[in-house]
Amino acid sequence: MDRNNDMIVSNQLFSILVITVIGIGVLSLPRILATEAGPDSLILLLLSSIIFLIIALVTQRLIMKFPKQNIIEITNSVLFKPIGILVGLVYFIYIFILITLEVRAFGEITKNFLLLNTPIEVIIIIFLITTIYLVRSGIESIARMAVIILPLSIIPAIFISLVAIPDLDFTCFLPILRTPFADLIRALPKLFFSFIGFELILIWTFFVKDTENIKKTVISAVGFISLVYFIFTGITIARFGIAENKDLIWPVITLFRDVDIPGTLVENVEVVIMATWLLSIFMTIAISYFGAVFLLSRILKSKEHNYIPVILLPIIYVLSLVPDNIAEVYDYLDKFSIYVGTVFVIAIPVMLLFISFFTKKTKGGIRKNG
Amino acid sequence: MGDYQKLFEPKKNKGNKINITKNLQENLKKVKEILSDCDDMVYREFNVGVNQNLKFATVYTEGLADKIIVNEYVLKNLMMLSRMTEPEVRNVREKVYDLIKDGVLSVTDLEEVDDLNKVVDSILTGETVLFIDKWDKAIIIASKGWPMRGISEPESDVVIRGSREGFTETLRVSTVLIRRRIRDPKLKVKQMKIGKRSKTDIAVLFIDGLVNQDILKTVVYRLRKIEIDGIMESGYVEQLIEDNWRSPFPHIQSTERPEKVAAGLYEGKVAIVIDNTPFVLIVPTTFNTLLQASEDYNERFIVASALRILRYIAVMISILLPALYIAMLSYHPGMIPTELALYIAGNRDGVPFPAAIEAFIMEGILELLREAGIRLPGPIGSTIGIVGGLVLGQAAVEAGIVSSLMVIVVAITAIATYSIPDYSFGISFRLLRFTFMAAAAFLGLYGVMIVFLITLTHLSNLKSFGIPYLAPLNYNMSIKDLKDTFIRAPLHRMKRRPEFIAKNDKNRMADSFSRDYLKKGEDNSG
Amino acid sequence: MDRKRICIFILIIAFIPLISSGCWDKVEIDERAFITAIGYDKYEEDDRSNEERLEKETQENPINRYIRTATYPNVALIAGKQEGEPFFIYSTTSISWAEGRRQVALRDNKNYDTNHLKAMIFSEELAKDETLFREIFDTFQRSAFLNRKLHFFVTPNKAQDILMTDTGKNMDVGLYIEELMEKEIRPTRAARGDMGNIIIDLNESNGALAPRIVKSKDRLKISGAGILKDNTIVGVLGELETRNALILKGENKVVDYTIKVDGKFLVVNQTDLQTEMKAYEDKEGKIHVNFTINAEGDIIQHYFETPEKAFDAKYIDRVNKKMNEVISKELEDLFEKIQKDFEVDIFKVGEHLRKFQPDTWEKIKEDWDEIYPKAKVKVDFQMNVRRVGIER
After folding, report:
1. Is C130 part of any domain?
2. pTM of this structure
3. Of the candidates C9, C98, C244, C384, which lies 20 to 30 Å from C313 by C-alpha distance?
4. Quick one: which of C247, C37, C260, C248 has its CA closest to C155?
5. Is residue C224 part of a domain?
6. B375, B193, B162: which is closest to B262 by C-alpha?
């Protein structure tokens, strides 16, 4: 998988990042925003986007210091050797748990909207096997898939949501800035759930051919993600109002249940949206899965690691069935993103960058020698 | 000795050489031994010279060699002309060979060989071999001339606007057709023989300076690796050198149209011309190229782009429509508009099979009809289509075995499949359709999406000679790369060759070329 | 390598029966009954005939609480395959939605499918019972298979009777109502009954208008609106009142007015209408609600052979003035009726204050229920007759 010729270009990195992040967060984002910020939803979103952009740039700075290295190697260079393995392992566990939760959430949503009577086990196992096929294909195939699936999953959704425009009432974003600022700040970590997946950039840069373009890619990726979030949140909240949005579990899906494209061959378009969303969640999970596999193989120092995804599959499968109900899944996801996610998305990269400023000089000499 | 000589140099079989002796009879005996029981060989011994003291012999295969050449320019010259002109006696003994070679035989293509195996090979290719007594070499006279099919319009790959010429079964004619479109010394035609017994001629064509060297090397390497007794058709070569034999998708393009090959060569691709088949292979091939018809470039870009988009839609229809029919009818009737749903439900009332079985039956019958139609001679073939399509469908609906909507779906699918320009590509979609249908029957839309993902993953895994099959869709999706995909940009805007193939000379047009002069009125048009 | 391949092969082989034994969700379209309309009536004490049930039932655990009636069209008729009744109807008494669903399943050979449900009808009696209303309404809101665009109705008759009405068009009630409500020239004298919007209205202002459907002379008629508040129905509006309410809400765009000018009846067809609401607090702490309505229209009926021609700017001016006067009064009366009699904020004055006067809203939001009925309303209706047809 990490043969020398496995290279992606920064444009592919863009697609990978965007599709990983958008995958599962977008469906419930308007609910979180409406609950936390009420009419100031869009402002909170803007705020979190800006803050996330700063975090992303910090991470990018760290990456540029150690180009063509992954998180384990970066940590090793910044600190000393065994720490890298430890950080890698922690990241692996983090991604792994994230995958299991996402898989479960995916299963529940699919069951809810597409296959009501099919056992969730069947839905999940079929999905995971398909994922493994892509994961084993390596980063090049994943990158190609990401590039193709990104427009496939986003463009239809945006087009269909545009149909709702005549029904929109943008006055529901009034009054502006009435929410206490402290509340907005306090709500920020909850929004990081919507940006989770971006930290995987610490792994992808290892494969990127044109390192010099990473900065541009990071900025445009965060920008694009925010734009997509803006469109969906804006339309959803303007359509349903604040009060209703707080009650809907997946407001974006409900938005598509509500739009009616006159004269089309398809009546309930939300099924179509579910299908295209399936594409993006597939990519989200496959990409994270690959990240986990890659980290594990690095930790185990194994060269042939086509077997790792296969071994991980039953574990993911079993773990994903652990939560009792959909409320619990989202509960875990929320907690996970607030407490654990914050550490991995913000704390570790910032810390590593910070330390690297001090250790650079001494380490520089060592690195020159070997 | 060109730059590519080394690349194409044949492997040397040192052990197998049989030397030609100075004894004519002995040589002939050996040849006859090798070609024993080959009754289509013609041996002719004759005497030459004023004194009739030089013994000569020619050997050729009847039918393969052009008899007129042999009679008029070889035998006649040797036997008649050489008797009329008195050679200088003292030179006769030493120089008879040069004399004959350079002075008597009025044929352009001659070769001297000393290996009997080569002699036999040449005889079997249609050349005439001239043995001369007391000389340990043989002269191979190019006399290939068998009855061949004339250049005619290709049966597959039909275009309305475009050249009517198609390749024929003769390698030389095919290369000529390409050469006529590329009058550039940089067009290289390198030949080799493949097949232990068939010894099929294969020509690798490429444009020096344009061609992607990695691809060329891979092609030659893979061709060299082939060890097979006979090559019947380009399909043999295709299957032996393609990247992934498990894939249902063709990743080498085969075409009967010279201009398609020429266009490919101009993009930096490599063409493989194979004797005995009118199908020429083009590598590398991408998903995108298989959906392009050569006509696209002959029409104005708006028309061509519209047709391209139509074709992509046709692909989606041909693989997805029956599956969606099953999924919507059996799993998600909520997707169908109410009135249509009610109508379908009423229409299907009394149909004994579930939608999936119904679809499988009808699609199966359709494939059967198509197969039957191809095998039958022209007029009868189309009759089968009409009988099958109209009568059978109508009867099935009236008998209540299938619903009328199913017949419509099948008909639309069939039409969509026919609109895919590449035949073998169309077949893979036909096959894939059944997978999608099975998935839809088991898991509805979810199954369809899963199979779609598997197919897409497979496609992104595929590479054709190192080039990703999905190129250029898989890179950055910028307008620059999509100029020749879903749409076809105006010709003067496509100044670059596809970047993923052409690495060396990227410019198709001069950068300075623009059509602004029309605006400025510089062309005196008013 | 080979062993691996065999393993994969076995896995696949093992997988096929698993999948093929499945098809869990497969229901052929011709085996489904697409319910188009569903009605709920309150279960009456005297409907009770079964003695056994009486014994099992206690005050806390009633067996039956309402009557659920569902209708689905005869699809064979739609496809032109056979003659017969245009729809089928099944009615059952039950304690909950699920109970009713399961009971009907015992009686019908088709699988029920609510994906194409078009109308939901509550009898007013049931709508007055808050518990039942909330239970059933929640079911509809919660379901992933029900359309948010379905129409919600209240009826003074029995919902069952409404569903059993012969529409006279050879179609069932659900489809008929759907076409009636969705036609291009929308009826102006009945409230919009889009379920999604009713939910939003109830969420935001605790009040909503639901269209009423009545049976008059053996035919269906949508007429007026029921006022929902606190998840019950608190009153009804007549047809003209509904029209006016919709004008105030800005939802009616095309309305006809019959108006008496100089002792002659004129008909003005109003073609465009812009409603603007403004609420504010004056210095004395009183809430004011001002409506400004700009309307355009044409005179489509005047008087044959009269010296006063409609094609006259001064005359048109007079018509405008008269209309402004009459209609403003009418609208003000309506607003006050809803505000004072029912105390329902269907015009979302509260929301308006929250959005545009956040400071005021902060002050009064706790007591809004008391303040709202005391608010002063002023309607400024501005009619502009633009055209008079092709006759002077």
Report:
1. yes
2. 0.90
3. C244
4. C37
5. yes
6. B162
Q: What's the gap in Å between the CA of C136 and the closest CA on chain A?
A: 17
CA distance C207 to chain A (A): 14
Provide the residue type at C22 as one letter: G
Its domain, for residue C294, covers: 247-387
d(CA A309, CA A128) in angstroms, rounded, equals: 10
Enumerate the residues of chain B whose CB falls inside 8 A of the CB of residue A266: 335-337
Give the count of domains, chain C. 2
Residue C140, sorted as left (phi over 0), alpha (psi -120 to 50) or beta, turns out to be alpha
In terms of domains, do C74 and C96 share one?
Answer: yes
Comparing C-alpha atoms, which of C276, C270, C273 is closest to residue C292?
C276
- Same domain, residue pair C52 and C161: yes
Looking at residue B101, its amino acid is K
The number of folded domains in chain A is 1
DSSP code at position C376 = E
Confirm or reject contact between A282 and chain B (CB < 8 A).
yes
Give the end of a domain, one of C180, C214, C237.
C237
Mutation pick from B342, B343, B448 vs chain C, by most beta carbons of C within 10 Å, is: B342
Contact C75 B345 (CB under 8 A): yes
Question: Does A112 lie at the interface with B, CB-CB under 8 angstroms?
Answer: no
Instruction: Say which of B349, B441, B444 has its CB closest to residue C81.
Output: B349
Nearest CA in chain B to A111: B446
CATH number reported for the structural domain that contains residue A148 in this entry: 1.20.1740.10
Q: What is the number of CB-based contacts under 8 A between chain A and chain B?
A: 96
Is there a single domain that holds both residue C45 and residue C167?
A: yes
Number of Cβ within a 10 Å radius of residue B379: 7
Are C343 and C310 in the same domain? yes
Q: Do C217 and C260 sit in the same domain of this protein?
A: no
Residue C61 has pLDDT above 70, yes or no: no
C219 token code pair: 């035919």
Long-range contacts of B341-345 (CB under 8 A, 24+ apart): B341/A267, B341/C29, B341/C34, B341/C116, B342/C34, B342/C73, B342/C75, B342/C78, B342/C116, B342/C175, B343/C75, B343/C78, B343/C79, B344/B403, B344/B405, B344/C29, B345/C29, B345/C30, B345/C32, B345/C34, B345/C75, B345/C79
Question: With an 8 Å Cβ cutoff, are C200 and A117 in contact?
Answer: no
- Domain boundary residue among C172, C202, C237? C237
Residue C15 lies in a domain: no
Q: Report d(CA B75, CA B83) in Å as an integer.
A: 12
Q: What's the pLDDT at B265?
A: 92
Do C264 and C218 lie in one domain? The reply is no
Over chain A (370 residues), what is each successive 10-residue block's mean pLDDT? 64 90 84 87 90 89 81 79 84 89 90 87 90 89 90 88 84 81 83 82 85 88 92 90 87 85 76 88 92 89 78 90 87 82 81 79 42
CATH at C354: 3.30.300.210
Query: Which structure tokens are listed for A183?
Result: 């509340």
- C170 and C305 part of one domain: no
